[in-house]
């Protein structure tokens, strides 16, 4: 019966009334009147421009008459722009007169904001109001259709994305799951300011539930084999504003198979499509004709007269799931000979003068319903007299499910894995626009984000432009501006163009790729310092004491403190000599740190924690908090975190003011993080102080939520003792262990996204992409984690045991078993 798909493009459904005499409901829309009779055998009647209904209404007769008069006046306007302006004014008036019905909210909720929006669905938008509280997101349709209110609990939200609609930044899409492709709600705002306010408010609820992923982070997981080709393409589409709710920006997937005629699907190169070229450039003869036309075309010139993704193409593939197709084509199916069949469609994409379409995700999914005429629809007869039914499959597929399985296996094959980055360059990357796009014969200027002015004053011109954008299709948002690195794939054979469709999950091995950032660093100085880390040079070296176990530096760098197995020593950089030496007990010191005021040094020992006063030159306090050796410490905002071989990490509240006044300190135990794995060797905090990571003797890395003190992830990723763990500036943890491995762990998923076989490293500093580390070899090694290669090896000590790096990453201090401390620039 009645559906919003009965409305025209840019038409709105306002309200419903009950009719007498002829029973049914009377729908008033912005461009038409729809009568939906109660008797199902009677057809729905839709009248546009002329008012021919003679019905009586049970209520609000005067309001109905006024609405019909406004509709009639709008329909009598000749110019499309004038009609649209009047309809928009009518809609705004209705939105202004109404507001969110707060009866749907709990009295315990605190509203944050309310504004007018539209809910976006395929081919239609439904106006209403959005209300955000401290508990829920509500959408209330103006017309009460299909339900009075939609409610989403904020604690269920897992992902939220800003979207562009009609090339304008007005959309917001909310997901309550990590992996589902379709969202829970897609909203269009009338101003970017309102959209952003809702976005940032909801985003504050996500900090403890989700970590925002970037194209670079997904790229690294895909490159190393932790995401399949299918998953990676879904993530890129999502980041590029492609949504199943917006047919003009439906997710786009590539054709990967070029053979739809053979009885068997072979694994040689001829089976696969050339992924380095757009569809329009796959046939050289057709490309030559297009180039000749392009060179003779006045500005703005373009290569292709149709896009690779548009609403018409999406619904062409989904014609056997019919409701949207009938809406787009005024209730009629296309000519039977033009109906979707796989082999014919591929042939037309190679040879047709105006057909350059790519595929949609359904071709690589598990639901074959779009390939089957399950509803027994009357799709017509072809010229040869045959009825159009299920999609005609290639000879190598036994049925629709077999077709999808083999199609997806081809997507995951070695050949496609080795070349998919070339297609990503065309659609999401640096060949999408500009001179690189021209060289690659890649698209139409109206389809690019930022390529046109969406705020044209002339309404007719603006509507015509937006209609062309919506019908022609839109190019995805550009995600990469430099060449995309190749996936790391197994090399079982010398011929890299060969692949195995049946074995897509072979062991990965390193391959060369373009340089790309592992993390997005915020400080340019740090980025430059790490970019020049290969030029690290020793400035001075100093004999100190026994093997160095810890290094701490005062604010400004004037004093350097180091611990050994028995003493704490202070070195003056200005005088270039040791000034103090302090012994606390007969037990060895394992690490040290200096508080922000540079007046107190904290040392961990095999028996206690000791607090040393720099101004007074003596031990100020002692914290006896563990039953075994204290192995490592870290400090954040008056809280001390101590890791011990007694299988715990303890959190202490310390009054740092008492240190500066030389009073006895008060230590309050705030929490105790129990480990099942035995002794804890290392502990560190993320930059925000919200997460903690610990490493144990049995090779387990545990990530903790600081506020709740509960385990978020526990990963058994090493086969021996872990020497050090540390967070990157954002979303990853690096660990090194006695098994000579370096592991990069994704904080959110707990996935080991990189594993590097190195030497036995004891200590390191890293920025998320590069690692400077040292260990038993005595050398400093600079690792590039993207290529898993050592780019620089620098002789340093007999064995490196401790390392410190300045905040701007321009100064490094190392200590070793050779009793030396070396300063580096």
UniProtKB/TrEMBL annotation:
GO terms for biological process: leukocyte chemotaxis involved in immune response; leukocyte chemotaxis involved in inflammatory response; neutrophil chemotaxis. Pfam families: Beach, GRAM, PH_FAN, WD40. InterPro entries: BEACH_dom, BEACH_dom_sf, BEACH_Domain, FAN-like_PH, GRAM, PH-BEACH_dom, PH-like_dom_sf, WD40/YVTN_repeat-like_dom_sf. Residues 492-515 have a biased composition (Polar residues). The keyword Repeat applies. Residues 106-203 form the BEACH-type PH domain. The keyword Aminoacyl-tRNA synthetase does not apply. Gene3D superfamilies: BEACH domain (1.10.1540.10), Pleckstrin-homology domain (PH domain)/Phosphotyrosine-binding domain (PTB) (2.30.29.30), YVTN repeat-like/Quinoprotein amine dehydrogenase (2.130.10.10). Keywords: Repeat, WD repeat. WD repeats lie at residues 623-653, 673-714. This is Neutral sphingomyelinase activation associated factor. It comes from Pundamilia nyererei.
């Amino acid at each position: 019966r009645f559906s919003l798909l009965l409305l025209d493009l840019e038409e709105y459904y306002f309200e419903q009334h009950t009719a007498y005499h002829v029973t049914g409901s009377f729908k008033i829309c912005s461009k038409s009147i729809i009568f939906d009779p109660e008797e199902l055998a009677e057809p729905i009647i839709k009248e546009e421009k002329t008012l021919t209904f003679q019905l009586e209404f049970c209520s609000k007769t005067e309001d109905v008459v006024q609405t019909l008069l406004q509709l009639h006046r709008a329909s009598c306007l000749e110019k499309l722009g004038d009609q649209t302006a009047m309809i928009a004014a009518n809609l705004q008036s209705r939105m202004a007169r109404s507001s969110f019905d707060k009866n749907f909210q709990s009295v315990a909720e605190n509203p944050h904001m309310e504004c007018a929006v539209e809910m976006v669905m395929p081919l239609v938008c439904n106006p209403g109001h959005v209300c955000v509280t401290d508990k829920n997101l509500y959408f209330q349709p103006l017309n009460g259709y299909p339900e009075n209110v939609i409610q989403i609990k904020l604690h269920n939200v897992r992902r939220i994305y800003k979207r562009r609609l009609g090339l304008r930044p007005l959309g917001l899409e909310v997901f309550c799951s990590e992996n589902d492709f379709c969202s829970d709600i897609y909203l269009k705002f009338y101003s970017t300011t309102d959209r952003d306010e809702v976005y940032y408010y909801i985003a504050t609820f996500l900090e403890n539930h989700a970590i925002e992923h970037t194209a670079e982070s997904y790229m690294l997981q895909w490159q190393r084999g932790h995401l399949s080709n299918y998953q990676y393409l879904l993530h890129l589409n999502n980041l590029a504003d492609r949504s199943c709710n917006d047919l003009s920006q439906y997710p786009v997937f590539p054709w990967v198979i070029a053979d739809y005629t053979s009885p068997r699907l072979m694994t040689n190169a001829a089976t696969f499509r050339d992924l380095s070229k757009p569809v329009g450039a796959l046939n050289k003869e057709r490309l030559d004709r297009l180039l000749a036309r392009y060179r003779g075309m006045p500005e703005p010139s373009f290569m292709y007269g149709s896009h690779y993704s548009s609403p018409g193409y999406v619904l062409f593939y989904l014609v056997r799931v019919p409701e949207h197709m009938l809406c787009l084509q005024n209730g009629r199916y296309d000519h039977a000979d033009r109906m979707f069949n796989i082999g014919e469609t591929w042939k037309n994409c190679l040879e047709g003068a105006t057909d350059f379409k790519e595929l949609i995700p359904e071709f690589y999914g598990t639901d074959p319903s779009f390939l089957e005429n399950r509803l027994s629809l009357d799709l017509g007869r072809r010229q040869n007299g045959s009825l159009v039914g299920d999609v005609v499959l290639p000879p190598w597929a036994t049925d629709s499910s077999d077709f999808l399985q083999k199609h997806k296996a081809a997507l995951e094959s070695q050949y496609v894995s080795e070349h998919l980055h070339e297609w990503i360059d065309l659609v999401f990357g640096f060949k999408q626009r500009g001179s690189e796009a021209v060289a690659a014969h890649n698209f139409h200027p109206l389809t690019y984000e930022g390529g046109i002015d969406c705020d044209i004053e002339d309404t007719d011109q603006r509507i015509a432009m937006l209609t062309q954008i919506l019908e022609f299709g839109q190019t995805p948002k550009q995600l990469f501006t430099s060449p995309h690195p190749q996936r790391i794939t197994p090399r079982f054979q010398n011929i890299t163009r060969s692949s195995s469709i049946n074995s897509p999950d072979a062991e990965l091995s390193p391959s060369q790729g373009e340089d790309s950032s592992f993390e997005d660093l915020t400080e340019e100085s740090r980025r430059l310092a790490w970019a020049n880390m290969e030029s690290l040079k020793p400035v001075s070296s100093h004999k100190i004491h026994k093997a160095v176990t810890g290094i701490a530096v005062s604010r400004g760098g004037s004093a350097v403190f180091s611990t050994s197995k028995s003493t704490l020593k202070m070195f003056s950089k200005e005088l270039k000599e040791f000034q103090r030496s302090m012994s606390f007990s007969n037990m060895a010191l394992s690490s040290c740190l200096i508080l922000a005021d540079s007046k107190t040094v904290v040392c961990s020992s095999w028996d206690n924690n000791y607090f040393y006063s720099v101004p007074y030159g003596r031990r100020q306090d002692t914290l006896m908090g563990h039953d075994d050796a204290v192995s490592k410490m870290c400090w954040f905002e008056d809280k001390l975190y101590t890791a011990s071989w007694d299988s715990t990490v303890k959190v202490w509240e310390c009054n740092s003011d008492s240190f500066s006044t030389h009073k006895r300190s008060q230590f309050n135990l705030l929490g105790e993080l129990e480990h099942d794995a035995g002794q804890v060797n290392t502990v560190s905090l993320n930059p925000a102080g919200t997460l903690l990571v610990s490493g144990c003797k049995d090779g387990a890395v545990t990530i903790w939520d600081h506020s709740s003190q509960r385990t978020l992830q526990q990963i058994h990723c090493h086969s021996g003792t872990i020497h050090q763990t540390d967070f990157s500036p954002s979303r990853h943890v690096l660990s090194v262990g006695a098994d000579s491995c370096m592991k990069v762990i994704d904080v959110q998923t707990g996935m080991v996204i990189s594993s590097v076989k190195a030497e036995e490293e004891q200590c390191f500093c890293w920025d998320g992409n590069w690692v400077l580390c040292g260990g038993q070899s005595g050398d400093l090694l600079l690792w590039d984690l993207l290529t898993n290669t050592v780019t620089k090896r620098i002789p340093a000590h007999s064995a490196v045991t401790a390392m410190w790096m300045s905040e701007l990453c321009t100064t490094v201090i190392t200590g070793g078993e050779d009793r030396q401390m070396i300063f580096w620039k």
